[in-house]
Specification:
This protein is an alpha/beta fold and 709 residues long. Among the domains are: 211 residues, Class I glutamine amidotransferase (GATase) domain (Rossmann fold); 74 residues, no CATH class. 24% of the residues lie in helices and 23% in strands. Helix 1 crosses helix 5, helix 10 packs across helix 11 and helix 11 crosses helix 12.
Length: 709
């Protein structure tokens, strides 16, 4: 299914494909190779608060250097071996390992020249005066199934011996239950539509962040996947069970204990974007690694509403355009009133926040407040002042001034005006940009609005490069970041999904939620939706007819019902998919969506209710302001670079975790509760966070329950 996302500037139309009503925007990834294996993707993850680095944040190109050799030890390196055949389940686990930031080595069974699994590939051996010392190269093994085609019997045998020798666990990404995996024949096969239950063993093994019982499918989680249920044989441990209407149900995820070897079986089909997998994904990683890994996991959600105090133009349901915006409406289109929040909307927002335990972020334009005064007082500002501390606030510039190049609209698409081969920046000089930033901060201070220091969002992302029309940032914008000590600037994630420098500021990409900035009622939203997503024959604009990424939709004919059953679920799924993918990038709508029919709330309600129906109190939504989102994403990308350079190594020997690398390197670490880490915080039943390596290797003492090697 495809939907067209509408932006303030109609010259920018972005299409997002929504497969099965769900999409995920993945974070930064790099190509990295470990132990001469087929290149894998190194991931991103986790929160932190280290100061911005002076060096550039950019992915390293080409094949990365080999991982730094681990120091002499008799334990196990923190590196997961992923053996893939390209099937969706094993690729989904690979993607989760990447998203959480774990070092991985990938063997692709489709590659005829792949590394053969040999004793030397799995184990390092050297001799000392006291005898031979053996160290394991992998802390976990992921296979497509219990007996994947492409692995020889000898290789499978070596993996089994290695796992027993070092206490290393194996995940079989998708294998129907069978006696060889400690299960009876299936007692049920078909759609898995019942509630899932985490057993006490499953909670202890890594799935304790989930509610004891949670809905496995339905609602915005989508259709029930196909799978198998069975009963465990003696020696196997159920981790997640599932009830099936009209059936006794059975075990869906289990641990097979085979003579000192532990394997996880997963009895349903899935891909990386399937919500059922996303629910279980972190538990799979925790189980696989005994909760000790170079990764960091959180579920982030920041939803911002732009143009506070400014107001927004309103969609014309007759002209199918937005009067006062670009491109201009056809002649004769009646002028529509602007949309601006009122006092009652502020009261509602505060009440909603308290009921839902979630803080809304506003991007404000203080310069427009005076234009909306009644008897010398702006009623919206008067309503905000007593409760300003209940919200996050970001400087959206004084009057939402345009900061890009002078535009030539005589061509389609428009282009920047040039003179002497140079782009003409027109009125968007340093003086204008400085005043837009400084006046807005000063106004916030005068009115008791706690704006985040060092954070800015230019109007419509203007001044930032827009390819192909404006290939570079406005240099005056970059200079203004330096002059005003700005650390973070909002960017458009659909154009630039990863961070980059704008002067001394780092860009924080934001995802759009596709509810029109220019609507405040359900009727307007459905009318605009139909215009952008229907063919000309069905009364739409026909934009979809020339698109390679979106398909034309049938007109929505019952506004309220279609808003509730079509538009809201799709938008909620997009947000939920990012929320469940360790993605700290904020989402945004506009203040117009918090007045009138208050369209923003049903979307937020759907996301939060779906999340909390599945996730327990140990894994709450992490609701950061934009500066916090930036810190997380910066640490994720710094770790991606460090991982790609191959200079960090880590291992567990006995109950000691050692991490070694260049001083100043940003590293994510997850350890079980009971570990005295001195950094990070508790989340999902573990202690995790980013730390900075010093001049000596970092050593942590783990609980005895995770002793390996």
């Amino acid at each position: 299914m495809g939907l067209t996302i509408r932006r303030r500037s109609a010259s920018t139309v972005v299409a997002i494909a929504v497969a099965n009503l769900a999409i995920v925007a993945v974070g930064t990834s790099l190509a990295v190779t470990h132990h001469s294996a087929v290149p894998a993707q190194a991931g991103t993850s986790g929160p932190g608060s280290a100061a911005p680095r002076a060096h550039a944040l950019r992915p390293a190109g080409g094949q990365a250097a080999a991982v730094k050799p681990a120091g002499p030890h008799g334990g196990v390196d923190l590196n997961v071996l992923v053996v893939t055949d390209g099937s969706p389940p094993v690729q989904a686990i690979r993607a989760e390992l990447t998203a959480e930031g774990l070092p991985i080595t990938v063997l692709d069974l489709r590659n005829h020249s792949r590394q053969t699994i040999t004793p030397g590939f799995l184990v390092r051996t050297w001799h000392t005066r006291s005898g031979a010392v053996r160290a394991g190269n992998f802390e976990g093994i992921v296979l497509p199934s219990a007996n994947p085609s492409g692995l020889s019997g000898t290789e499978l045998g070596l993996l089994g011996k290695y796992e027993r020798l070092f206490g290393v666990r194996e995940v079989d990404a998708y294998t129907p239950p069978m006696a060889d995996l400690g299960m009876t024949s299936p007692v049920y096969s078909g759609p898995l539509s019942g509630p899932a239950t985490v057993t006490s063993a499953g909670a202890s093994a890594g799935f304790g962040y989930l509610n004891a019982t949670f809905p496995f499918s339905g609602g915005i989680a989508g259709q029930a996947p196909f799978g198998y249920l069975a009963d465990p044989l003696p020696g196997s441990t159920p981790l997640v069970n599932l009830a099936i209407p009209g059936s006794a149900g059975g075990t869906l995820v289990w641990q097979d204990n085979d003579s000192g070897r532990q394997r996880m079986g997963i009895g349903f089909g899935y891909g990386s974007y399937a919500f059922q997998f996303r629910f279980l994904a972190h538990g799979i990683v925790t189980w696989l690694t005994h909760g000790v890994n170079l990764g960091d996991y959180r579920n982030y959600l920041d939803i911002a509403y732009d143009d506070m105090f400014l107001g927004d133009a309103q969609w014309s349901m007759t002209g199918h355009c937005t009067p006062g915006d670009t491109p201009p409406c056809p002649r004769g289109t009646p002028v529509t009133p602007g949309i601006r929040m009122v006092q009652a909307d502020v009261t509602y927002a505060v009440q909603w926040e308290k009921q839902h335990g979630f803080k809304i972020e506003f991007l404000y334009n203080g310069g427009l407040s005076s234009q909306n005064q009644v008897n010398g007082v702006d009623p919206l500002l008067a309503a905000v002042k007593p409760v300003a501390g209940d919200f996050y606030w970001v400087n959206h510039t004084w009057t939402h001034a345009y900061m890009g190049c002078v535009q030539d609209f005589t061509v389609v698409p428009w282009k920047c005006v040039t003179s002497g081969g140079h782009i003409v920046w027109g009125p968007a000089d340093l003086s204008l940009i400085n005043s837009q930033i400084q006046d807005n901060f000063a106004w916030a201070r005068q009115n008791g609005i706690p704006a985040e220091p060092g954070v800015v969002a230019s109007g419509e992302y203007s001044g930032l490069r827009i390819l192909p029309q404006q290939p570079v940032d406005n240099p005056n914008l970059a200079e203004a970041m330096n002059v005003n000590h700005i650390s973070w600037i909002a960017m458009d994630a659909s154009r630039e999904p990863t961070m980059r420098w704008v002067g001394q500021a780092l860009g924080v990409p934001r995802h759009p939620i596709d509810v029109g900035y220019d609507v405040d009622t359900v009727a307007e939203e459905v009318n605009e939706f139909n215009w952008y997503n229907d063919s000309k024959a069905d009364g739409g604009s026909g934009i979809c007819q020339g698109s390679r990424t979106t398909a034309c939709q049938k007109p929505l004919t019952d506004a309220q019902a279609d808003w509730t059953t079509v538009i809201v679920p799709v938008q909620a799924q997009i947000v939920l998919a990012a929320l469940l993918n360790n993605d700290p990038r904020p989402f945004f709508m506009h203040q117009s969506n918090l007045t009138g029919d208050r369209l923003g709330y049903p979307v937020m309600d759907a996301v939060l209710s779906a999340y909390r129906a599945v996730y327990g109190r140990t894994a709450p939504v992490v609701n950061l302001p934009m500066s916090g989102d930036g810190e997380v994403m910066r640490n994720q990308q710094l770790w991606s670079q460090a991982l790609g350079s191959g200079q960090v190594s880590a291992w567990v020997e006995g109950n000691t975790l050692t991490i070694d690398g260049p001083p100043g390197t940003t590293v994510p670490v997850t350890v079980p509760d009971g570990t005295s880490a001195g950094f990070g915080s508790r989340y999902a039943g573990e202690t995790s966070g980013f730390t900075t390596l010093g001049s000596h290797p970092l050593k942590l003492t783990l609980p005895s329950s995770v002793i390996r090697g």
